[in-house]
Amino acid sequence: MDLLHSQLAILQQQLSFVATDPIDWKSYVQACSWGVTLFESYLLLRQYPLYSKTSPPEVLAGHFDDGAFQKSQDYGRDKAKFSLVTGLLKQAIDSAILHYGLYASAWDIGGRMIAYFGYGSEYEILQSLAFAIVLFVVSSIPSIPLSAYQTFVLEEKHGFNKTTPMLFVTDLLKGWAIGFVIGTPFLATFLYVFQWAGDRFVPWLMAFMLAFQIIMVILYPTVIQPFFNKLSPLREGELRTRTESLAMKLKFPLKHLYEIDGSKRSSHSNAYFFGLPWSKHIVIFDTLIKESKPDEVEAVLAHELGHWYHMHPMKLLCVSQVHIFTILALFPAFLHAPQFLQAFDFSKAVSARPPTVVAFFLFQMILTPLEAFIGIALNFLSRQFEWEADRFACEIQDRLSAPEMNDMGERLGRALVTLHVKNLSTVWVDWLYSAYHHSHPTLTERLKALEAFQAKKDGAAKKEL
């Protein structure tokens, strides 16, 4: 532990310029945030012409009729327009908030809020919670009409919306309530660890955040998810039999098998698993069950179990821990830099002893361009995992010595096509747009890879004969 802290101290020495050099951090954040937004707009403009194509890629020509493909193109075009406008609008609002020093005002408002109840500025954690609430309210106001438009205009236009106005409002209120119930103690504990551990906070804070992630894995499906969707045991039948048999053969620790009423809000389809290493739960959307045959759903689940088999969730968790460690290791230089806060219009009195929550919030803004590059790297890693899970599904026959699963790759391909057709997913995708935005390979890429996996497996089988 002493070695870790000594190395972190050396890093802080390298970053000492943050507290001494007169850097215009506000202009830096403005330039970086606008740079990222304009780059994302550029990617949308690269992608937009592809929605004018009149036929699908050659590998998909036999799977799309003209009507389905045109609907997909229209949906993609409308989503691109919406994303372009909302991205620029949100950036303009964020830029105005930053320019006019509203973050400093939010801290002062938080101080007045707790003063009303008889608490002074020495109660930093309490004022930090009030500061977070003010920022949440300010950021939520413009997002509500945009979310309503997306749900009741854009999604409604293309036949996906199942949400009623009452359900929209109740979901919004539930989300706020759950965010307050969970977020408030999380932030309070987060800040308390800073105060308790001092400059040696990094390992303690990482331990706390890892524990919180594990707790959420347990609480989300059992406590939070039921506020929004109903999870029912998957009814008896071919799909349940296939799923339980597949899980048993792979020694997947299946505890519960659920069907979720995703159709309550949308026509989109999905399936996923969650849980601790020794107790897993599989959730299948009712829309997927309705739109796909049992053997195709089984192929989708074989892909999902491929993620489990290759320990992809654990690997991503490890990557996230490295990411968190890097952020926390860099942060102390900004926490102990009064000039840093003054650059964002905070008074000298506040900047002299920078509040942890304020310094960390502004520090996150500094990382904007870095996070964009990290997002691309994480997408690349995620796509490798997706291909690995697809290959697992193709090779599952050999792993389990189950000849009846010889066509699993073909079934997965059919299921992916069905999902894309029903979800009106985009099939013509610009490579740079995909690299930045997509955690999954495109449908065309996945179908070609599945064919290659199947051909390689068939070739190996012929050699054995």
Automatic annotation (TrEMBL):
Localisation per UniProt entry: Endoplasmic reticulum membrane
CDD domains: M48A_Zmpste24p_like
Domain CAAX prenyl protease 1 N-terminal: 47-230
GO cellular component, one term: endoplasmic reticulum membrane
Cofactor: Zn(2+)
GO molecular function: metal ion binding; metalloendopeptidase activity
GO biological processes: CAAX-box protein processing
Active site: 304, 390 (proton donor)
Spans through the membrane: 125-154, 175-195, 201-220, 316-337, 357-381
InterPro entries: CAXX_Prtase_1, Peptidase_M48, Peptidase_M48_N
Enzyme class: hydrolase
Keywords: Endoplasmic reticulum, Hydrolase, Membrane, Metal-binding, Metalloprotease, Protease, Transmembrane, Transmembrane helix, Zinc
Family annotation (Gene3D superfamilies): Metalloproteases ('zincins'), catalytic domain (3.30.2010.10)
Amino-acid positions noted as binding Zn(2+) in the UniProt annotation, renumbered to this chain: 303, 307, 386
EC id: 3.4.24.84
Cofactor binding, note field: Binds 1 zinc ion per subunit.
Membrane topology qualifier: Multi-pass membrane protein
Catalytic activity field: Hydrolyzes the peptide bond -P2-(S-farnesyl or geranylgeranyl)C-P1'-P2'-P3'-COOH where P1' and P2' are amino acids with aliphatic side chains and P3' is any C-terminal residue
Main location: endoplasmic reticulum
UniProt record similarity statement: Belongs to the peptidase M48A family.
Function, in words: Proteolytically removes the C-terminal three residues of farnesylated proteins.
PANTHER family cross-referenced by the UniProt entry: CAAX PRENYL PROTEASE 1 (PTHR10120)
Name of protein: CAAX prenyl protease
Source organism: Rhizopogon vinicolor AM-OR11-026
Taxon lineage: Eukaryota, Fungi, Dikarya, Basidiomycota, Agaricomycotina
